[in-house]
Amino acid sequence: MGEKQYGIDENRLAEYAKQIKEIHEQGLQIGIVIGGGNIFRGLNGASKGFDRVKGDQMGMLATVINSLALSSALVSMGTKAHVLTAIRMEPIGEFYNKWKAIEYMEKGEIVIISAGTGNPFFTTDTGSSLRGIEIDADIMLKGTRVDGIYTADPEKDPTATKFHDITYDEVLKRGLKVMDLTAMCMCKDNNLPIIVFDMDTPGNLKKLLNGENIGTLVHN
Question: How many CB atoms lie within 10 A of CB 120?
């Protein structure tokens, strides 16, 4: 949403695309999973009377809209990107499978994997974890508006302190809201490390991948 109350902020979209292009030009293979909360959140819809399954399906479609927007922004900057969808909806995007995603990445193209897991009752966090594990990612980067994991919500508690790194077990023990429980347990069981960082500060993604101490590392 960026500075907007709803939908897609073109400036924020362009900033994200520029950051992603920068690291792609370093030769990194990149798979991206985007949420859809700027358009519709299934769980919020369910609390207002929507059928939960239909609400989650609406949320999945919102992630496809965001994925198409990012793909368009990247392509306009001269970076090849493919949108894959967890639900069949050709010609909007190709139907996702692991080998197709890896094939595109090995060709030097960015893969944007949309529609979550394709199933209701699973969040985009779980979709990210699942796809990261499937495509044998070295690490999952969770870009948010907060610069890491804190002992409490830093936007509400000024005394909250930041972790530079933390284990999955400690996150679960403390009940920290990093990702939903299903996603966290999947990463733990499959040894996929996570870095939570502030994606809204231009340049952070490149600094992070160049080894600067940005964000919080979650590991076994």
Answer: 17
